[in-house]
Amino acid sequence: MRVIKNYLYNVGYQVLAIIVPLITSAYVSRVLRPEGVGANAFTNSIIQYFILFASMGIGYYGNRQIAYVRENRKKMAKTFWEIQIVKTIMTLASFIAFEVFMIFYTRQADYMWAQSINLVAVAFDISWFYEGIENFKVTVLKNSFVKIVSMIAIFVFIKNPSDVTLYIIVLAISTLLGNLTLWPNIRRDLPKISYKILNPWQHFLPMAELFIPQIATQVYVQLNKTMLGGMVSETASGYYQYSDNLVKLILALVTATGTVMLPHVANAVSKGNMQKVKQMLYKSFDFVSALSYPMMFGLASISLTLAPKYYGSGYEPVGPAMMIESIVILVIAWSNALGVQYLLPIHHQRDFTVSVTVGAFVNIILNVPLIHTWGLYGAMWSTVISEISVTLYQLWAVRGLLSYKKLFSNSWKYLIAGIIMFIPVFWMNQNLKDSWLMMGIEVIVGVIIYGVMVILLRAPIVGQAKELIANRLKK
């Protein structure tokens, strides 16, 4: 039950973290127009490279290391402060590098300096600690409050197309404040220790191992927006981000399992219970498959009308882009289960690193010809193909460790249910009245069709749901 509670907490925050800008984006897209939205997307893609350097793979590494030692409070405190020292030094070095960069980069200086607040916020992000001790409640509640305040601030202060800098500042400060709110709990959750026993640099090389896959991941997360801004237009970069926002909102419901399961699996690994690790992975893989198939087909079925209706006129290209990108919901769900929930906890960092490096390499190779030929849609196909390559490599990497039969034994059921759901919903979306009410009906129809199909096909997710409900009723 603890894993389920943490999953729900993490899903809640991940959804809120995306839903707040999603709610405000319907307003901001109309106020700032595609040009302002594109300027924010393009400059944010640049600052993310410096944030990547400052983060230094600490998210996954810190989460895992804290999970290993959480039964010993003194070791846990020592580990926390050692990792945090490295992170602070790396953030300082990254900010110095950013200042040097700005000497030579004179384009949109105001936007770039406003984005740099996001870089400062990295030093104060200790969410990895609370993820490691599986206390998701504190991070969710405090950050949720800050997100809601930032949403209010956007509606109050962002009034015209010239407010792009102010919009960037509001978003960045909300991130900084969200990170700062976690610090008061540290005095309660960690005992005092002497700084003399700290040895922070022992963590540097292990962090670097996870830094490489983070670099590779960011390549095909941020490079597409950067290259679209340079090769096509900043507006195209904005279209990419707005498509990505909606897809990532759906994806957050699935990938939240990775953050929750990583410390849980790591703790089982530290106790040598590898059979339990495999069983958790099989169950988790089936769970994310059951969720991601309907989300992929569902989003694809309504995307063509959802994007322009939500963002307003001028954003019509976002719809087809979203339909293409919806494929990554399933692909990333699988790679998240295999990579984050299995390869990292069992110390197969090399396989994880190679997988995302392959994805980045594929993305770089495909970006130039595909963006040159098809612009925004070329970037989307490049993203999809690169994510597929990541998953395929991870499947190859676990070939001697896991059973493909157990991983995919029920996947065909979810695939059939998803296709049968997609056909009528897509027809309704294209042929019936285009309104929010009708779109809501389409979503409800899709949920009902998928639910009925998985019951008829006797998918295991049905049994798991019944078991969960029965356990809750007993309590």
From TrEMBL:
Pfam families on file: Polysacc_synt
Subcellular location: Cell membrane
Entry keyword DNA-binding: no
UniProt membrane topology term: Multi-pass membrane protein
Domain of life, source organism: Bacteria
Cited PANTHER family: O-ANTIGEN TRANSPORTER-RELATED, PST FAMILY PREDICTED COLANIC ACID TRANSPORTER
Name of the protein: Flippase
